[in-house]
Amino acid sequence: MTNTTAKDLPRTSPCCARSAIEGTNSLREMDLNGKLNIRGDASEAKFVEGISQALEMDLPISANSVNERESQRLYCLGPDEWLLHCYLKNTDSLAQYLREKLAGVHCAVTEVSDYYTILRLSGPDAEGLLRRGTPLDLHHGVFKHGHMAQTRFGHASVLLHRLAEGEAWDIQVRWTYAEYLWDYLASAMKSL
């Protein structure tokens, strides 16, 4: 069995042939970044301390919360699961460093960089476009800037993250649903 490293991963998703849509609203696929799924017990001090030391940021504990530091984002996906975004070139060394800091702690650090792609939807109609496919209340008074949630969008499971800068959303989706989501959003944008 061969170990796959971040440098061996494909660099493009099925959406790579689609050109970004620009205008009042825009849709584009973001460059591939590193992603590590982290599982562990947030009530275990050694786990929390190991993550904090390795990443130089606090472990977000509240559901749907995100902590950021420089090029890293750490999403709290549930009571025992987190997703770390980082530079792709740093993924392998960061995974190894996390494993070293968490030695002796019951946990898992798994590379998932090629499992998800990120589509960025931005513009004044972005919230309305997303409302067409998800049951979540996306009103800015409820789903605030910096907030994230896992949900359904049409037939796809997605992670929605409302970015702090204006009306921009990152939509993280499995590669197998990337084209479906792109086509759904592109069609909805044409109908505006």
Structure characterization notes:
- The chain has one domain (20-190): Probable tRNA modification gtpase trme, domain 1 (Gyrase A, domain 2, 2-Layer Sandwich).
- The protein is 23% helix and 30% strand.
- Helix 1 packs antiparallel against helix 2.
- The model has no long low-confidence stretch (mean pLDDT 92).
- The chain is an alpha+beta fold and 192 residues long.
- It has helices at 45-55, 91-101, 126-131, 175-190; strands at residues 26-29, 34-39, 66-69, 72-78, 81-86, 108-111, 116-122, 148-153, 156-162, 168-174.
- A five-stranded antiparallel β-sheet has the order 1-7-10-9-8. A five-stranded antiparallel β-sheet has the order 3-4-5-2-6, covered by helices on one side.
- The chain is built from four helices and ten strands.
- The chain is globular, with a radius of gyration of 17 Å.
CATH topology: Gyrase A, domain 2
> What is the CATH architecture term?
2-Layer Sandwich
Largest sheet: 5 strands, antiparallel
CATH class: Alpha Beta
Question: Which sequence of strands runs across the widest sheet?
Answer: 1-7-10-9-8
Write the layout of secondary structure elements.
Elements: E1 26-29, E2 34-39, H1 45-55, E3 66-69, E4 72-78, E5 81-86, H2 91-101, E6 108-111, E7 116-122, H3 126-131, E8 148-153, E9 156-162, E10 168-174, H4 175-190
Antiparallel strand pairs: 1-7, 2-5, 2-6, 3-4, 4-5, 7-10, 8-9, 9-10
